[in-house]
Amino acid sequence: MFPFEWKVVSTTPINEMTAPPFRGPFLKLMLRFSAFKRPFIRPARQSFFLALMAGLLSLAAGCSNSLATPAPADPKVVVTSPLKLAIVEWDEYIGRLAPIEEVEVRARVSGHLQSTHFVEGQIVQAGDLLCILDQRPFRLAVEQAEADLARAKAKKDESAAQMVQAEAEVRSVESQRELAAQLLDRAKRLVANRTLTQEELDIRESNYKQATADRDIRLARVNLARAAVLTAGAELRADQSRLATAKLNLEYTEIRAPLTGRISNRAVTDGNLISGGTENSTLLTRIVSLDPIHCYFDADEQSLLKYTRLGNSGALADLRKAKLPVHIRLADERNGFPHQGHLDFLDNRLDRKTATIRCRAILPNPDLTLTPGLFAKVRIPGSARKETVLIPESAIGTDQTEKFVFTVNASHTVERRKIEIGRKARGLRIVTEGLQGDESIVLRGLQRVRPGATVDATPELTVALNDGLPDDVKPVAVEHQLNSYVSKPAPETVPRTNISTSTAATTSWIRKAGNTALEGERTR
Question: Minimal CA–CA distance to 85: which of 386, 384, 379, 382?
Answer without folding.
Answer: 386
